[in-house]
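Data deposition worksheet. Section B asks for the primary sequence of the deposited chain exactly as it was used as input, without tags or linkers unless they were present during the calculation. Section C holds the resulting structure in token form. Section D is free text for depositor observations; keep each observation to a single sentence. Incomplete worksheets are returned to the depositor.
Section A, Depositor: J.P.
Section B:
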Amino acid sequence: MNFPQQISSFDQIVWPVRPVHLAIGMFDGVHRGHRTVTGAAQRAARASEGLSGVLTFWPHPSALLRPAEPTRLLQDGAAKSRMLLAMGIDFVVTYPFDQPFAAVKAEDFLPWLRSRVPHLAAVYVGDNFRFGCGRKGDLAALEASGRDYGVAVFHAPRLAHEGEVISSTRIRAMLVAGEMAGANRLLGEPYTAAGPVTAGKRLGRTIGFPTLNIPWTPSLAPRFGVYAVSVSGEKAPLGLPAVANFGLRPTVENSLVPRLEAHILGPCPFVEGDQISVAWHHFLRPELKFSGVAELRGTIESDRLAALRHFGL
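Section C:
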């Protein structure tokens, strides 16, 4: 079987006779702390001529365990898998977090896993990893089970930045507050939205600021407002500087669903149907409601100049 693979069941893999080094966790955002875990699995796999893999889950356990207030996620499962595979992981299993899986007892977890991954050599987790029914399994229990079943257990200490632990929870709070620069430092790369360019109402074009409209409905919505961003795609793989608005467009529409629109700060090669990625770099201002199109046009010009200054253009 060719790798990399993005799958939802271990049964979809025809296992070569090679040791498997498996990182386990939600890895929401695949931030710098997560990468200490996945990176350790990758290094060990290379050293043993084995396979590096990630076992992650969808939906978030909170959707099953506390459905009235599930955790809002930084990215969907497909985006997370793409990031992990782009980092060099050989396979990503996005396993359904459903009632049968949630009922697996902590003492049965490693045998359950080993029966599905026949050449499992080691598992890699964060030092706050919990597992099994009722989250009763901790790191000590996993290490003891590993000794019983001949599976090595590696745990990575939690990374800190500016005196606080790097966590998906901390990043979520930063995005809601519009602290994009801080969130990006913890993520290790810019926060990104992706999707196809779709037709809009073309108001931006009529006032001199044509925009790319990207349908994007994240579980966790960043702060509504205007951002300095870069837009990349097949026609511009290195990214083009742009200014973007994310919000409800109260001046012209007052939509119930947030919309992401980006205006390229130079010639725009993208057209409707192109798949693009928007990397968010800097929060410029909150979303505002203006008295009319003339005031909106003047503010967009100020936003454009602010974005140019951010990029040193």
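Section D:
The chain is about 30% helix and 25% strand.
Residues 43 and 239 are 30 Å apart (CA to CA).
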